[in-house]
C-alpha cells in the first residue's frame, strides 16, 4: 500500500492567504478611479483640522462671544446650503473633475484667507465663503463613485470611502488638538495644502466620468425637488444632520464648560475615527445584503442612544464612550445615504441629486450652531436629550418612507 503525504501549509503562508482573502472581499474589484478618489480623500482628511476647531478658534483666538460665534458658524451653514447644489450643478454641467478639483482649490484659498482674517468685517464673509467652498467637491465625488462602481458594489465602496475619511479624521483631530494648543496658523496652512493635493491628484489621475451628453439630458436643476421620495429623504437627513453637526458646533464648547481642554476634545473626536477604522471593515461589506431603510433607521436609533449618553457626560472617558456609540450609527447612516441617492438619481443628474442631499447636510450645519448654542445656554442635558428626540424622529420617518424607496430601487 502506498501513501502520498501532503505537507501541511506553513502557518505564515496560511495567515497571508487569510489576509488576502479578507482584503479581497472588502476591497477587491473596484476601479482605479475609485482608488484615486479614496487616496485623495484620505490625504484631504488628514489635513482637515480647521472646521472641527473653528468655534474654539473664534472664541479663543479672535475673542468672539459664544452667542456671536453661533451666528458666525450659521453663516458657514448658509454657505453650506448653497455649496452642494452648486457643486452638483457644476458636476453635471461641466464634469466631475472640474467640480472636484475647482472646489478643493477654492476651499484651500478660503482657508488661508480665514486664517489671517482680523475683525468681524472679514471673519463673517470669510466664514460664509468657507461654507460655500467646503463641500463644493462632494457631489462630484459621490457621482464619480456612482459613475464608476457597479450597483452591487456601491454600498461597499461608499463604506470604504467613509473608512478612509475617518482614518484621516482621527489623525487630524489628535494632531489638530495638539497644534491648536500652540496656535492655529499652521492648522490653516496644512488644511489648505491637503485641499490642493487632492485637487491636483484628481485632475491628473482621473478621467472624466460624466455620462456623454449628460448636460443635455432630461431634467433640470429642480428635478430632485419634484421627486417626492427624494424630497422626503432629504428632510430626514436634515433632522439627522442637525444632530450630527453638534459634534463640531457645540460639543467642544460643552466639553470646555466641563473643564476639559481642546486636546481632550481632539482625543474624544479621534474615537470617532478609531471606531470607524475598526468596525467598518467588519460590517461594511455586509450592509448591502440588508434593506437600506432598516439599516438607516437602526443608525438613527443608535445615534439617539449615543446622544443620550452624552447628556450625562462630564469626563473625557464618558464623552469618548458616547462618541463611540454615536459613531456606530454614523457608519450605518453614511454608507446607506449615498447608496439610496444613487438608486434614486438618473445617471445624468447624479450631481444634482447628490447636491440636494448635500444641501440637507448644509441645512443641518446652518441649524445646528444657532439652535445648539441656545440649547447649550439652557443646559447640556437639555441639548443632548433634544438631539436624541430628533434622532428618534428620523428613525420613524425613515421607516415610513421605506416602502416608497423599495419600489424605486426595484424599478
Report on the architecture of this protein:
The chain is mainly α. The protein has helices spanning 11-27, 32-46, 54-61, 66-94, 96-115, 120-134, 138-148, 154-180, 185-205, 223-226, 228-244, 246-249, 251-257, 262-283, 292-310, 316-344, 350-378, 380-410. The mean pLDDT is 85.
The chain-level mean pLDDT equals 85
Helicity, as a percent range: over 70%
The CATH topology is given as Growth Hormone, Chain: A
Largest sheet: none
Distance between the termini: 64 Å
Q: What form results from the Cα inertia axes?
A: globular
- Following the backbone from N to C, one meets helices and strands in this order, namely HHHHHHHHHHHHHHHHHH
The CATH homologous superfamily corresponds to MFS general substrate transporter like domains
Query: Pairing-aware structural class of the strands and helices?
Result: mainly alpha
CATH class: Mainly Alpha
Number of strands: 0
Q: Which terms summarize this structure?
A:
411 residues, mainly alpha, Growth Hormone, Chain: A, 18 helices, 79% helix
Q: What is the fold's blueprint, element by element?
A:
Elements: H1 11-27, H2 32-46, H3 54-61, H4 66-94, H5 96-115, H6 120-134, H7 138-148, H8 154-180, H9 185-205, H10 223-226, H11 228-244, H12 246-249, H13 251-257, H14 262-283, H15 292-310, H16 316-344, H17 350-378, H18 380-410
